[in-house]
Amino acid sequence: MRSVGVEEELLLVDEASGEPRALATAVLAAATREASERKEEVFEAELHREQLEFATRPQTDMGELAREIADCRADAARHAGRHGATVVALGTSPLPVSPSVGSGERYRWLEEHFGLTTYEQLTCGCHVHVSVESDEEGVAVLDRVRPWLPVLLAMSANSPFWQGRDSRYHSYRSRVWDRWPSAGPTDLFGTADRYHAYVEAMIGTGVLRDEGMIYFDARLSRSYPTVEFRIADVCLDASTTVLVATLARALVETAARQWKADEPPVPHRTELLRLASWRAARSGLDGQLLHPLTMRPAPADEVVRALYDHVREALEDSGDALPAREALFALLANGTGARAQRELLNRTQSLGDMVIACARRTAR
């Protein structure tokens, strides 16, 4: 069974107003003191002081993964609560904010080299790591999951607001993130050697600081023997995070089996994949998506079912077929985090009240 680990980025916000607060240093200090007693580091700093990141352990059981995500979210809220703040799983801040860049050398380098782009990256994503046996298998997987990644973005869409305004997108985070020069979909690599040569060439330009700035939608992890899916928004509900992780593992297993059976990847051009990601960001699950196999418009529920059918065998083998199917139908019926945010705003007529309601939902 392939193991799965999840990294989630959370916004730190005032517990009364919902406004982002630059409290990462203080919250991390509290978390670190507790972690030293447990001998387990969970939380990390991110680019901006208004956010916090945690990483789960590698898990093979999705029920255990769900419990760990819930525990990490609750712990993050508890640590923030000591400073009059809380955490909220939103891809962007609905309220206006002037983010503050962290003090580390790496963050200062980004600030110096990328200017306004760095300041505008107060965005929260969800990264899913799925184990692979080798870089060769990992690259074969990357080549074969490319057309399915926009579907994961549509399912996770949770960032409709930007600087106090409705962006008209379901995932505006992904549009902001794509301002980095290395972000987005990739061409077919073919072999691990070609992948690594491509990465080395990108770093050799001097535009990127190091391999950590390879911001592909999916990449080989530089730290773990995994394929890392980076396309998703942080999800409002932990159940959606688990669904995305479940489907990511099934995509990896399906792609690896295709590779071993000498089935070639779908040869869509990168330009089409960019359009598919834009469509997913714009519509979420409330409109049309580009079908991964044909790159033609199709209803979102049809495309989601196509993803399920594509990975059904892997889901059945891991025992995840029924839970994933039920979670997919629930997501299609209830909507994404983006829809939930808009519905909450319609009820409360206040962005701040909406954020606080989402914070309660995050820690629930």
From TrEMBL:
The keyword ATP-binding applies. One of its GO terms (biological process) is modified amino acid biosynthetic process. It is an enzyme of class 6 (ligase). ATP-dependent carboxylate-amine ligase which exhibits weak glutamate--cysteine ligase activity. Its EC number is 6.3.2.2. Keywords: ATP-binding, Ligase, Nucleotide-binding. It comes from Streptomyces uncialis. GO terms for molecular function: ATP binding; glutamate-cysteine ligase activity. The lineage of its organism: Bacteria, Bacillati, Actinomycetota, Actinomycetes, Kitasatosporales. SUPFAM superfamilies: Glutamine synthetase/guanido kinase. Belongs to the glutamate--cysteine ligase type 2 family. YbdK subfamily. NCBIfam families: gshA_cyan_rel, PRK13517.1-1. This is Putative glutamate--cysteine ligase 2. Signal peptide: none annotated. The keyword Chaperone does not apply. Pfam families: GCS2. It catalyses: L-cysteine + L-glutamate + ATP = gamma-L-glutamyl-L-cysteine + ADP + phosphate + H(+). Coiled coil: none annotated. InterPro entries: GCL_type2/YbdK_subfam, GCS2, Gln_synth/guanido_kin_cat_dom, YbdK.
